[in-house]
Amino acid sequence: MDFEERSNEALKCFEAKRQENSDERDRIQKKTFTKWVNRNLAKRGRKVEDLFVDLRNGFNLIALLEELTQEVLPKENGETRFHRTQNVQCCLDFLRRRNIKLVNIRPKDIVDGNGKLTLGLIWTIILSFQIAVITQRQAEEGQKRERLQSGQRSPQPSNGNGEVGLENVNDYDYEEGSSAVQGVYMVLGF
Asked: Which domain of life is it from (predicted)?
């Protein structure tokens, strides 16, 4: 076997391994995102079995966005491709009106069950609605904490050596930080 044949063989092995890893990553994302979608859809008595199939008509996607925003979106009740496309288009337009950037995702992609773009859409929704909420809550809690701390005196040392006693230590920071981390893990299904 000469150098070129060995190189081609190595390249084929590398490409096969890369594809295997990509497939595994997609499988994990699909499972994780399906859990997240179902957790939100359960509040509306809905469930998806296969993310790539069950979002195609737009009904579950509309229900998901309605649950996340508490707004009502228009929907087409027919079962034709036109109706499915209109429902998905309504969802994408709704997201764009909220200044959520959708890169190369068209209604046709979701209606046709394109896995990569469906995962991309759900990830964008997770980032926009879940993680943004967690980040906003953290910022609000930080502002609250700053207001509280600025209105309070500094802890007084509990002994004459300038050391702060445990009775003056507040668990608030740890608890809030811990709950924020748990929130991110929960969103991502860990």
From this structure: Eukaryota
